[in-house]
Design goal:
single chain, alpha/beta, eight-stranded mixed β-sheet, 6 helices, about 35% helix, globular
Length: about 240
Protein backbone atom coordinates (compact mmCIF):
# COMPACT_ATOMS: atom_id res chain seq x y z
CA UNK A 1 0.00 0.00 0.00
CA UNK A 2 1.33 3.43 -0.91
CA UNK A 3 2.08 5.60 2.10
CA UNK A 4 3.30 9.10 2.90
CA UNK A 5 5.40 10.17 5.84
CA UNK A 6 5.83 13.41 7.76
CA UNK A 7 7.64 14.85 10.76
CA UNK A 8 5.09 16.74 12.83
CA UNK A 9 4.57 17.90 16.40
CA UNK A 10 1.90 17.22 18.98
CA UNK A 11 0.85 19.68 21.66
CA UNK A 12 1.32 18.46 25.23
CA UNK A 13 0.80 20.41 28.47
CA UNK A 14 4.60 20.74 28.69
CA UNK A 15 5.28 21.79 25.11
CA UNK A 16 5.52 20.50 21.54
CA UNK A 17 6.47 16.84 21.15
CA UNK A 18 7.90 15.75 17.78
CA UNK A 19 6.23 12.74 16.17
CA UNK A 20 6.89 10.69 13.06
CA UNK A 21 3.74 9.86 11.08
CA UNK A 22 3.26 7.32 8.31
CA UNK A 23 -0.15 6.89 6.71
CA UNK A 24 -1.77 5.37 3.62
CA UNK A 25 -2.38 7.79 0.77
CA UNK A 26 -5.72 6.19 -0.07
CA UNK A 27 -8.74 8.09 1.28
CA UNK A 28 -10.92 6.86 4.11
CA UNK A 29 -10.90 6.61 7.89
CA UNK A 30 -8.57 3.95 9.20
CA UNK A 31 -7.50 2.36 12.48
CA UNK A 32 -4.36 3.83 14.00
CA UNK A 33 -1.32 2.48 15.82
CA UNK A 34 1.03 4.29 18.18
CA UNK A 35 4.60 2.98 17.96
CA UNK A 36 6.65 3.62 21.10
CA UNK A 37 10.41 3.77 20.71
CA UNK A 38 13.20 1.81 22.34
CA UNK A 39 15.54 3.25 24.96
CA UNK A 40 17.79 4.39 22.09
CA UNK A 41 15.36 7.03 20.84
CA UNK A 42 13.12 7.71 17.89
CA UNK A 43 15.62 6.33 15.43
CA UNK A 44 15.67 4.84 11.93
CA UNK A 45 14.49 1.43 13.13
CA UNK A 46 11.39 2.82 14.85
CA UNK A 47 10.61 4.97 11.82
CA UNK A 48 10.94 1.85 9.65
CA UNK A 49 8.52 -0.09 11.85
CA UNK A 50 6.11 2.85 11.69
CA UNK A 51 6.23 2.80 7.88
CA UNK A 52 5.76 -0.97 7.78
CA UNK A 53 2.65 -0.71 9.94
CA UNK A 54 1.26 2.09 7.75
CA UNK A 55 1.82 -0.05 4.65
CA UNK A 56 -0.59 -2.56 6.20
CA UNK A 57 -3.37 0.03 6.19
CA UNK A 58 -2.98 1.86 9.50
CA UNK A 59 -2.24 5.47 10.38
CA UNK A 60 0.93 5.01 12.42
CA UNK A 61 2.43 7.58 14.77
CA UNK A 62 5.70 7.34 16.68
CA UNK A 63 6.08 9.92 19.47
CA UNK A 64 9.51 11.14 20.57
CA UNK A 65 9.29 10.25 24.24
CA UNK A 66 12.72 11.85 24.78
CA UNK A 67 11.61 15.23 23.46
CA UNK A 68 12.40 16.92 26.76
CA UNK A 69 16.05 15.94 26.19
CA UNK A 70 16.35 17.46 22.72
CA UNK A 71 18.53 17.94 20.78
CA UNK A 72 20.86 15.17 21.94
CA UNK A 73 18.24 12.47 22.43
CA UNK A 74 19.19 9.62 20.09
CA UNK A 75 22.00 7.18 20.77
CA UNK A 76 23.57 4.24 18.99
CA UNK A 77 22.95 0.64 19.94
CA UNK A 78 26.53 0.54 21.19
CA UNK A 79 25.85 3.37 23.67
CA UNK A 80 23.79 1.55 26.28
CA UNK A 81 24.90 3.65 29.29
CA UNK A 82 23.82 6.83 27.52
CA UNK A 83 20.51 5.20 26.54
CA UNK A 84 19.91 4.21 30.15
CA UNK A 85 20.64 7.78 31.22
CA UNK A 86 18.02 9.13 28.82
CA UNK A 87 15.53 6.45 29.81
CA UNK A 88 15.91 7.27 33.50
CA UNK A 89 14.85 10.84 32.82
CA UNK A 90 11.45 9.65 31.58
CA UNK A 91 8.86 9.79 34.34
CA UNK A 92 5.72 7.69 34.08
CA UNK A 93 3.22 10.55 34.60
CA UNK A 94 4.87 12.60 31.85
CA UNK A 95 5.01 9.61 29.50
CA UNK A 96 1.31 8.89 30.05
CA UNK A 97 0.59 12.57 29.43
CA UNK A 98 2.58 12.44 26.18
CA UNK A 99 0.82 9.28 25.01
CA UNK A 100 -2.54 10.85 25.83
CA UNK A 101 -1.55 13.83 23.68
CA UNK A 102 -0.64 11.43 20.86
CA UNK A 103 -4.09 9.85 21.16
CA UNK A 104 -5.67 13.31 21.03
CA UNK A 105 -3.70 14.15 17.90
CA UNK A 106 -4.74 10.93 16.19
CA UNK A 107 -8.39 11.54 17.05
CA UNK A 108 -8.23 14.90 15.25
CA UNK A 109 -6.93 13.43 12.00
CA UNK A 110 -9.72 13.07 9.45
CA UNK A 111 -8.37 9.73 8.23
CA UNK A 112 -8.38 8.08 11.68
CA UNK A 113 -11.09 6.02 13.34
CA UNK A 114 -10.40 7.01 16.94
CA UNK A 115 -12.44 4.07 18.23
CA UNK A 116 -9.80 1.70 16.86
CA UNK A 117 -6.33 2.58 18.15
CA UNK A 118 -3.61 0.08 18.93
CA UNK A 119 -0.30 0.55 20.72
CA UNK A 120 2.95 -1.31 20.29
CA UNK A 121 6.36 -0.58 21.72
CA UNK A 122 9.85 -2.00 22.03
CA UNK A 123 12.18 -2.27 25.02
CA UNK A 124 11.36 0.84 27.09
CA UNK A 125 8.45 1.36 24.71
CA UNK A 126 7.09 -2.09 25.52
CA UNK A 127 6.86 -1.14 29.17
CA UNK A 128 5.23 2.18 28.27
CA UNK A 129 2.74 0.35 26.03
CA UNK A 130 1.71 -1.77 29.02
CA UNK A 131 1.51 1.35 31.19
CA UNK A 132 -0.67 3.03 28.58
CA UNK A 133 -2.96 -0.01 28.56
CA UNK A 134 -3.49 0.53 32.28
CA UNK A 135 -3.69 4.32 32.46
CA UNK A 136 -5.33 5.14 29.10
CA UNK A 137 -7.20 1.92 28.58
CA UNK A 138 -10.58 3.40 27.74
CA UNK A 139 -9.03 4.94 24.61
CA UNK A 140 -6.93 1.99 23.45
CA UNK A 141 -8.25 -1.05 21.61
CA UNK A 142 -5.26 -3.42 21.54
CA UNK A 143 -1.74 -3.40 23.01
CA UNK A 144 1.34 -5.35 21.88
CA UNK A 145 4.52 -4.83 23.93
CA UNK A 146 7.83 -6.25 22.68
CA UNK A 147 10.35 -7.24 25.39
CA UNK A 148 9.15 -4.54 27.75
CA UNK A 149 11.62 -4.45 30.60
CA UNK A 150 9.89 -3.46 33.84
CA UNK A 151 6.41 -4.73 33.00
CA UNK A 152 6.58 -7.00 36.04
CA UNK A 153 6.86 -3.86 38.16
CA UNK A 154 3.61 -2.54 36.73
CA UNK A 155 1.45 -5.55 37.62
CA UNK A 156 -0.17 -3.59 40.42
CA UNK A 157 -1.86 -1.55 37.70
CA UNK A 158 -2.85 -4.51 35.55
CA UNK A 159 -6.38 -4.72 36.94
CA UNK A 160 -7.20 -1.48 35.10
CA UNK A 161 -6.30 -2.90 31.69
CA UNK A 162 -9.27 -3.29 29.32
CA UNK A 163 -7.61 -3.92 25.97
CA UNK A 164 -6.40 -7.35 24.85
CA UNK A 165 -2.66 -7.84 25.06
CA UNK A 166 -0.12 -9.61 22.86
CA UNK A 167 3.25 -9.73 24.62
CA UNK A 168 6.54 -10.81 23.02
CA UNK A 169 9.63 -11.94 24.93
CA UNK A 170 13.00 -13.57 24.27
CA UNK A 171 13.75 -16.73 26.21
CA UNK A 172 17.35 -15.67 26.88
CA UNK A 173 16.67 -11.98 27.57
CA UNK A 174 19.18 -10.94 30.23
CA UNK A 175 17.07 -7.89 31.11
CA UNK A 176 13.79 -9.81 31.51
CA UNK A 177 14.35 -13.14 33.28
CA UNK A 178 11.81 -15.88 32.70
CA UNK A 179 10.59 -15.61 36.28
CA UNK A 180 9.35 -12.12 35.41
CA UNK A 181 7.59 -13.42 32.31
CA UNK A 182 6.01 -16.14 34.47
CA UNK A 183 4.87 -13.52 37.00
CA UNK A 184 3.26 -11.47 34.21
CA UNK A 185 1.53 -14.58 32.90
CA UNK A 186 0.27 -15.57 36.34
CA UNK A 187 -1.07 -12.10 37.19
CA UNK A 188 -2.86 -11.58 33.88
CA UNK A 189 -4.37 -15.06 34.17
CA UNK A 190 -5.46 -14.39 37.76
CA UNK A 191 -7.18 -11.17 36.64
CA UNK A 192 -8.91 -12.88 33.74
CA UNK A 193 -7.38 -10.55 31.15
CA UNK A 194 -7.44 -11.26 27.43
CA UNK A 195 -3.78 -11.84 26.58
CA UNK A 196 -1.25 -13.98 24.78
CA UNK A 197 2.43 -14.31 25.65
CA UNK A 198 4.83 -15.47 22.95
CA UNK A 199 8.35 -16.35 24.08
CA UNK A 200 10.88 -17.11 21.36
CA UNK A 201 13.37 -19.87 22.25
CA UNK A 202 17.02 -18.89 22.21
CA UNK A 203 16.40 -15.20 21.54
CA UNK A 204 17.63 -12.28 23.59
CA UNK A 205 16.61 -8.68 24.15
CA UNK A 206 16.07 -6.72 20.95
CA UNK A 207 15.54 -9.77 18.73
CA UNK A 208 13.05 -7.90 16.51
CA UNK A 209 15.42 -5.07 15.56
CA UNK A 210 17.43 -5.73 12.40
CA UNK A 211 19.82 -2.90 13.33
CA UNK A 212 20.96 -4.68 16.48
CA UNK A 213 23.50 -7.51 16.72
CA UNK A 214 20.95 -9.61 18.60
CA UNK A 215 18.50 -9.59 15.69
CA UNK A 216 16.90 -12.97 15.10
CA UNK A 217 15.38 -13.06 11.62
CA UNK A 218 13.05 -16.09 12.03
CA UNK A 219 11.70 -14.85 15.37
CA UNK A 220 11.28 -11.31 14.05
CA UNK A 221 9.40 -12.56 10.98
CA UNK A 222 7.07 -14.66 13.11
CA UNK A 223 6.52 -11.84 15.61
CA UNK A 224 5.66 -9.48 12.76
CA UNK A 225 2.99 -11.86 11.48
CA UNK A 226 1.67 -12.36 15.02
CA UNK A 227 1.51 -8.59 15.49
CA UNK A 228 -0.36 -8.04 12.23
CA UNK A 229 -2.80 -10.83 13.00
CA UNK A 230 -3.44 -9.38 16.45
CA UNK A 231 -4.11 -5.89 15.09
CA UNK A 232 -6.29 -7.17 12.24
CA UNK A 233 -8.37 -9.11 14.73
CA UNK A 234 -8.92 -6.21 17.11
CA UNK A 235 -8.55 -3.11 14.93
CA UNK A 236 -9.42 -4.28 11.43
CA UNK A 237 -7.32 -2.86 8.60
Amino acid sequence: MEIRTSHESVTTPDGAMPVYVAEPTQPGRRPAVIVIMEAFGLNAHIEDVTRRIAAEGYVALAPDIYWRSLPDNKVGYDELPKAIGLMQKVKDPSAVQDLGAALDALAKRPNVNAAKVGVTGFCMGGRLAFLAAAELGARITAVAPFYGGGIAGLLGKAEKIRAPLQLFFGEKDAFIPQDQVNAIDAKLKELGKSYTIKTYPGTVHGFFCNDRPDYNAPAAADAWQQLLGFFRKHLGS
